[in-house]
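Objective 1b of the project was to move from sequence-level analysis to a structural picture of ligand recognition. The entry below was assembled by the postdoctoral researcher (A.K.) and checked by the PI before modelling. It contains the amino acid sequence of the target and the SMILES of the bound compound, pyridoxal-5'-phosphate.
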Amino acid sequence: MAKAGKILLSLFYFKEKPKSVFAQINNSIFAKTRINFRLNHPSMENHQFRPESLMMSYGYKPELSEGAIKCPIFQTSTFVFKNAEAGKRFFEVAYGLSEQRPGEEQGLIYSRLNNPDLEVLENRLTLWDGAEACAVFSSGMSAISTVLLEFLKPGDFVLFSAPVYGGTDHFIKHVLPQWGIESASFDANDSEAAIAAIIEAKGQKKLGLIYVETPANPTNALIDLKMCKRIADKFSAPDKPVYLAVDNTYMGPLWSHPLKHGADLVMYSATKYIGGHSDVIAGAVLGNNALMTRIKTMRTFMGNMMSPWTGWLLLRSLETLKPRMELQAQNAIKVAEFLREHPKVEKVYYLGFLEEGTEQYAIYRHQYHSPGAMLSFDIVGGEKEAFTFLNNLKLIKLAVSLGSTESLAEHPATMTHADVSQVEKDKLGISEKLVRISVGVEYYEDLIFDIERALSVV
Ligand SMILES: *Cc1c(COP(=O)(O)O)cnc(C)c1O
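Corresponding predicted holo structure:
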């Protein structure tokens, strides 16, 4: 009975096309192999369900769980084998000692390898990004650090876009060097030729991975992924491919799909929009079957998979992902427009305000479907004025993190980016007067009321 998802480690296994519509929707093996499947009903032929329509059912078979409409929480460490022969067979396949036979179902073994809640969640996450496979993690940082450790070797260097998330920055600059892995960085102002020169100066044969975070936090500067892919291809060798890994936490999985712009791997802090309620820490990585097999193998031995309970909460979060994110984006437009007109606001950094004709605008139109729900602004004054504003907000909470139902505000220079050197802060525009806001789902006039009141005290 306990086999809601039954694709454990069977990464290259394709089942015969099922007959009924419902069998298709509920067939997790089918689910992970392609995003757009066709209905068999003649009048509905070629209909493609959108991800938001599938978030309630995809990859889950109620008949395997007593008919429960929702996937139960499989709070279990291990799974009982039907008989010794079945257990032997599962291990043969799991350890790659034998290939899965056509039509053979792979069973569940142990929750560090996989678990139904995680499998169903992984299958559903593949839909948004159009990915072949997904692996979910205990945090965004465990997803990111697992990718870096799997794809970099001693002697390599990682080329990364600056600024990246503080935890990522620390891992690259202070942890990877302990394994003999160096780094070099570029930013949104660097041209393709300038980036190539950075790689050549470092030793192009040593380039192991290109790691990008876009839009940059907190200024929303954009990196052109197509350009990054050209660079990755240019420095790839047959025996040493250079992969492009993109942290899509800020705009995914709804508003940007890096795999379609040349990325090989896309990573998330699922703590943010995917979880969306500020109640879990979680992460995910998506990509093709071959790369994800490597990631899942590394995850098995790092043991940093997600817990079943977190997986279950995220399944619930995914059902409302699209309406949440859309409302957040709508609210952000109103908040940004209000801020732009306010005399105590010097400048607003918001993707919706990029000027047509600029290079940044061109990247924006190409890579994103929405300006998103993150914005920052320079308040007239400095730290004192920024703090007065933050201390006088009532509805909007003073906290780091982003992408959640509640609106959050913070001071990057002294909080999320406290660790960044002054030289870099100046270069990236992270000044004392900068305030960052993650816009939530509250009624927009209440948000504006709160902001207006707090600004009036400054
Ligand atoms: C929050 C965040 C992370 C880290 O994720 P955790 O879930 O906190 O481990 C990584 N990248 C970005 C862009 C983030 O915002």
